[in-house]
Every structure is written in structure tokens, then in C-alpha cells.
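Aim 2 progress update. The chain analyzed this quarter is reproduced below.
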Amino acid sequence: MKILLVNYRYFISGGPEKYMFNITKKLEEEGHEVIPFSIKSNKNKETKYEKYFAEPIGGKDAVYFEDCKKTPKTVWQMLTRSIYSFETKKAIKKIIKDTNPDIVYILHFVNKLSPSVIKGAKEMKKPVVLRLSDFFLLCPRFDFMKNNKICEDCLTKGYRSCIKKKCVKDSVFASLIRVFSMKIHKLIKIYKNVDVIITPTKFLKNKLKNNGFDKNKIECIPTFCPEKQVDTNKVGNYGLYFGRITEEKGVEYIIKAYQKLDNNHVLKIMGDDTTEEAKKLKKYIKNNNITNIEFLGFKQGQELENIIQDARFILVPSIWYENLPNTILEGFSYGKPVIATNIGSLTETVEDGKNGFLFELGNIDQIKEQILKLDDDNLVKEIGKNNLQKLKDIYSVDKHYNKLINIFENLKM
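Predicted C-alpha cells:
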């Protein structure tokens, strides 16, 4: 089978791109041909198909909108990519015409490619599968967050709430554009052109189902994580947080929990520590003379794997719903217990007492209690074995592939 895989970045930037390259590898191992469609960038992995890619906003070096010079052309591209881009539709129709894929599998496109990729594929009479990794179909901000609190006002009170609260980039204009684009997409029924929507979690599936999306078109296929060769008898000596260090990740709460613990309990924080949130947290640690917490900075490759392998457990203190974060699955793959917030999709991934422990949102004392439970080496080993088994049963690459290819084959018929 020939699959056109659409994503707005063709280089590793976050979870969606890790998924993109991992599923490409698996599909190719199974004998399928994967054709990428993305945006031209100097960061892209080399591919002969880049000549078909959409033109970038603000040049090939720009990754985020903040990187773009706000010229009239750039502003126009931002607006059209947010709402509907005929330029992008033309580009995807060209690659479909020249390569004739059996199916179009779309990952991220919002604000960079535009949903015109869906319309372009359908005009070329190709089945379209859309995989979601956040809540952009329901929330203008993508995350159901405002002022570091969960907010679903747009679902209950309408999108005017977003404009009133300046939810997008704390800007009335940006919020207005995002709401306008969502209204236009609903008016032209763009998502009716999607044959199947794939969600990584039941939580997101239910959100869509309860808010007007056709339940018969939604399939839950959890993300996967490759299995590792690990020694489950080995227990580490520190708690580990790894990932983005931003406000919605809730890192401040585990820092305050470790502040209440003695120096035998060590927390290591791995990720880009140059963010504003990281700077704020490091300042807090210094001002309060906290000596059992260490920032490791951004790591990759074998060094990153060694740090996860040597951890005792993984902490996921998010204050937003999340959507099956890779950090949990990577923790499972190393046989590590996970301590996570009891909200959103986290509660269906981490079963309290079996795969780790859950705590109430922002409850520092409860975080501390859950950390202390894992002072028991035998409990750490037992939960670690449970997590390796859960990875095989639910989150393996073969499970994911078989469900995905079954959808593709049914649509191709």
C-alpha cells in the first residue's frame, strides 16, 4: 500500500514527529511505501519529495511564528494557513497526482498547512484518515487551559469566551482569528471529508463524541512505544521528570513536594531548561536553598536512555488533560512506575496502585505521599513488571500497526 503521510514538520520537534518517524519505519518494514508531505524547512530530514512540500511561512529557518518577520506576505500566509490555504491545497493535489497514494494519513496541520489538505485529498478522490494529538477540534487553544486552570467554556458557553478571555497568545486578534477559522471550518463542513478520526485515548474520543462529531467515524488507537531490553530487578535512586518545562506541565508541584522531602529523595528534571518556566523554577530552588533537585538540561540519544533507565520512577504532574504523553509510555518501556495527576487521559493510562500512583491536581502533600510509597524496592519491581506487560498488551508497535492498517485496508476497498 502507498500512504501519503501529512505533517507540518518533517523533523523531530515533539511527540507527533516522533510518532511520524516511528510509524513510517514500521509501515516500511511491513512493505508499504510512505510518502511524506510537509513544509519546506532547513531542519527537515532529507527526502526526494521535498520539492512537493508547501512553502514555509517566514522562510526555511522559521519554526515558530515568533521566528517570522511580520511582512505583509508572512501575515497573509499566517491568516490563510489558519483558515484555508489554496496554495497548500494545490501543493498536496500535485503530490497526489504524481505519486497516486492509496490513502492520505494526516497528523498535524493546524496554522501551518491548513485543513485545505483534507479538501485537496478528497478532490483527488483519496480516503482521508486524521490522527489527533491534541484538542484543536474543540478548543481554540488546543489544550482546554486558561490561566493555568482547566477551562471548557468554549464547549459550554460558545467561542465568544475565547475572544473575551484572550485565550490564544493573550491576544484579542489572535483569539478572533482562531475562532473565526473554527467557525469557517464548521460552516464549510471541512471535517465531514475525513473518513476516520483516530484518537490516542478514550478520553479524547468521548470529548469528540459528546460534542457533535460522528461516533461511527472515531477510532481509538493508542500511541505505541518500542520495547526495551531492561533489568526489572534494578531499581534506580531518583525520581525523574522529562519533557517540556512549561507551566501546563506542572513541574512546580513536584518541586514543592521534593522540598518537603529529605536529601535521600532526589528529583532530576530533564528537558530544555532555558524556558521562562525553567528559569522561574531554578530561581525558586536557589532562593529556597533546595539541594535535592537537579536540572539536567536537554538530553538525547544514549545519554537520555541511560538517565531514564537509572531512574526509580517517572513523574507526570501535568495540570492539563494531556493526550497519552510519550513520557508515560517511555517510562513503561523501561519498567518504571509512573506518578501522575488524576485528570484527563492520564487516569486511563496509569491505574492507581498497579502502574504507579495518581494524585489530585496540584496536591503537593499527596505527591509526597506517593513518592514515599515507592521507597519499597519490591513494589517498584512489581509495578515495573506490570508496566512492561501493559506495554505489550496495549501500547506495542504491532498492536498499533494492526489496528491502523486494518482501517487503511477497509477504506481502500
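The two ends are 12 Å apart (CA to CA). The chain is about 40% helix and 15% strand. These observations will guide the mutagenesis experiments scheduled for the next reporting period.
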